[in-house]
Write a structure and sequence with these properties.
Helix content: over 70%
Structural class: mainly alpha
Oligomer: single chain
Strand content: under 5%
Shape: elongated
Number of helices: 3
Order of helices and strands: HHH
Radius of gyration: 18 Å
Length: 78
C-alpha cells in the first residue's frame, strides 16, 4: 500500500515536470531570437527542474548508498 502511494507521487511529479517542459518549450518558441529561446528554455525549464529533481531525490540517493554499503559490509556514510 505504502509503495503504491510513493509510485503515484513520483508519477504525478513526472507528469507535472513534463507539462512544465511543454510550457517552457512554447515560451521559447515565442522568443524573437534563437539565443533568447534557448536561454528561456534552459533558465525557465531545465535548470529549475534539475534543481527540483536533485532536491527530491536525496532520500533515494541515501537509500542507494546504504544498500551499496550493506552489500559491501561497510558502515554507511552520511
Amino acid at each position: 500500500m505504502f509503495e503504491s502511494i510513493q509510485i503515484l507521487k513520483r508519477l504525478h511529479m513526472l507528469i507535472v515536470a513534463i507539462a512544465w517542459l511543454y510550457v517552457t518549450v512554447l515560451m521559447a518558441f515565442t522568443e524573437p531570437t534563437v539565443v533568447a529561446g534557448i536561454m528561456t528554455f534552459l533558465l525557465y525549464g531545465l535548470l529549475p527542474l534539475g534543481i527540483l529533481f536533485y532536491l527530491t531525490g536525496g532520500k533515494r540517493r541515501k537509500r542507494k548508498r546504504a544498500a551499496e554499503a550493506a552489500r559491501r559490509h561497510e558502515p554507511p556514510t552520511v
